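Fill in residues.
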């Protein structure tokens, strides 16, 4: 069994899976409560399934990009479980998970562009082909109308997905674009986590850190006069 944790955005989500199948899913939408909710969701998933911690085979974590605070909460919880239970850690790109879910939903799309809101008119994004190979690596994207046409064959169907997709469609008038405004969820990690588990494609928990792409935006306090 694999326990999947997702805290990169507004939803704190935990999924218990077995052989790539969902057993239990618990979610809450309160970004400021991820730290207090994540282990409660873990306990709830295990309790609902009648499963003990020692039956787990691996911990999968959404590695970002996304909320800096949320990612730290999820990674800290995943590391704690891995160290306490001596389990391997599986890291899944948040953008890849969004793309994978969208490809399963649409099937015949030529390209999938997952987007997660960053700052101002920027998103974290990438471009995936239907075989989940990257056409454009994960990066910060400064949005402008028809940005996707600069990188893609206009004849192929394009699906924009993820919580940042609305930001792009607001400035873009291309009616041929499909959108799937899905949110990061532990459910989206299941297939990719199982594939990595079979291949024993694990990360080193001790040295692992989230993929922020961009350094945190920290403002300096004003001087007291």
């Amino acid at each position: 069994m694999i326990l999947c944790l997702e805290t990169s955005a507004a939803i704190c989500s935990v999924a218990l899976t077995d052989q790539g199948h969902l057993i239990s899913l618990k979610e809450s939408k309160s970004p400021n409560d991820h730290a207090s909710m994540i282990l409660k969701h873990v306990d709830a998933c295990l309790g609902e399934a009648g499963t003990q911690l020692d039956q787990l085979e691996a911990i999968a974590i959404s590695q970002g990009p996304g909320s800096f605070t949320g990612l730290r909460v999820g990674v800290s919880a995943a590391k704690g479980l891995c160290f306490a239970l001596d389990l391997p850690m599986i890291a899944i790109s948040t953008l890849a998970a969004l793309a994978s879910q969208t490809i399963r939903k649409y099937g015949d799309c030529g390209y999938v562009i997952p987007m997660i809101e960053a700052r101002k008119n920027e998103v974290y994004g990438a471009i995936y082909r239907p075989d989940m190979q990257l056409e454009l690596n994960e990066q910060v994207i400064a949005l402008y109308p028809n940005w996707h046409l600069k990188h893609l064959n206009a004849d192929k169907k394009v699906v924009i997905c993820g919580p940042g997709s609305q930001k792009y469609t607001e400035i873009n008038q291309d009616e041929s674009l499909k959108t799937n405004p899905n949110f990061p969820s532990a459910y989206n990690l299941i297939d990719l986590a199982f594939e990595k588990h079979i291949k024993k494609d694990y990360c080193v928990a001790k040295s692992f850190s989230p993929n922020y792409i961009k350094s945190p935006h920290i403002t300096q306090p004003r001087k007291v006069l």
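Residues 8 and 70 are 5 Å apart (CA to CA).
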